[in-house]
Design a protein that fits this description.
The protein has about 350 residues and is α/β, with parallel strands linked by helices. It has two domains: about 150 residues, Rossmann fold, CATH 3.40.50; about 180 residues, Rossmann fold (3-Layer(aba) Sandwich). It is built from 13 helices and 13 strands. The strands form two sheets. It has a seven-stranded parallel sheet with strand order 3-2-1-4-5-6-7. It has a six-stranded parallel sheet with strand order 10-9-8-11-12-13, sandwiched between helices. Strand 5, helix 4 and strand 6 form a beta-alpha-beta unit. Helix 9 packs across helix 12.
Length: about 350
Amino acid sequence: MKIGIYDPYLDDLGGGEKYMMKIAQCFSQNNEVFVFWNEEEDFDDLKKRFLIDLSRVSLRNNIFSKNFPIWKRLIESKRYDVIILLSDGSVPFLLSKKTYIHIQQPLPRIGLDLKAKLKLSRISGIFCNSSYTKSFIDKSWGINTSILYPPVELKPKKTIKENIILHVGRFRVKNVGTEDYKKQGVMIDAFKKMIKQGLRNWKFVLAVSIRDDDKEVFDQVRESAKNLPIEFIVNRNNDELWDIYSKAKIYWHASGFGEDLKKHPEYAEHFGISTVEAMGAGAVPVVIDAGGQKEIVEEGKCGFLWNSINELIEKTSKLMENEKLLKKMSENARRRSARFAGDRFCKELEEIISK
């Protein structure tokens, strides 16, 4: 089959981009696979960052570009057996034999008009990255979408655990309309509070990816943590991240904290790949009770969920002070992470496309 893949945020190097390129990799083993994108440098950066084998995947002129005539897009799309695209809530009109939409985040305000409903009738299937995302899309569009949890490859390294709280995430996200989407500033303040309360011999490590446009703001955040046991690891690829995942004892995540999630559900973590990765390395998650995190973490068994900074500190301290509990939850976290890992992504993808 001839398969086309499109991600409008390919240059963002986020979890959604890893998701879409993993789809390309899955199908490239037995099909012709093309990615609609004009900048080869972005494509190369993505391969280096995520270490995804895209050697059998080729770039094609971006038929979804604003500079590409609609009539020409229709002609070009007709040459494909399958086109899969990441949608921001819009419904494309294409002439490929099959068209599938992937939606990465909850978009509650995207009710369909008559034109969109007509275009939707030509869509072969829609799949989301979590039950959290699905709940909003199904309600908005009046449909029943499939769930395909993101691809997670677990590569923990044998090393001695250290007194490290870890957070992994992009410093800023350009396609989400809030300044501190990952709430790294909130977590830094929480750790500072723990130090004031007497915490010793622990450090907080933030492994972040930063775009050039955000370096100035990031430097201000780093300056705010000066002379404290807070460390920043910047722009590392997946293999390098496993070094720190494997050393960390506890994992923090806070996306959605302090936000009106009824009005902006997209401000919560849509799934939580980094949480699963951390768990796979035996780090116990202490993450916000919101979004897709609730689908990953089983409260009190393989980690903790929290709703306030005091609760975050309390549950983190509980793990720090009880080595037996920390070890038990670490083992449970490893087992739980396996639910989202392995080769199940490509298999489940094939099932969705073959329907």
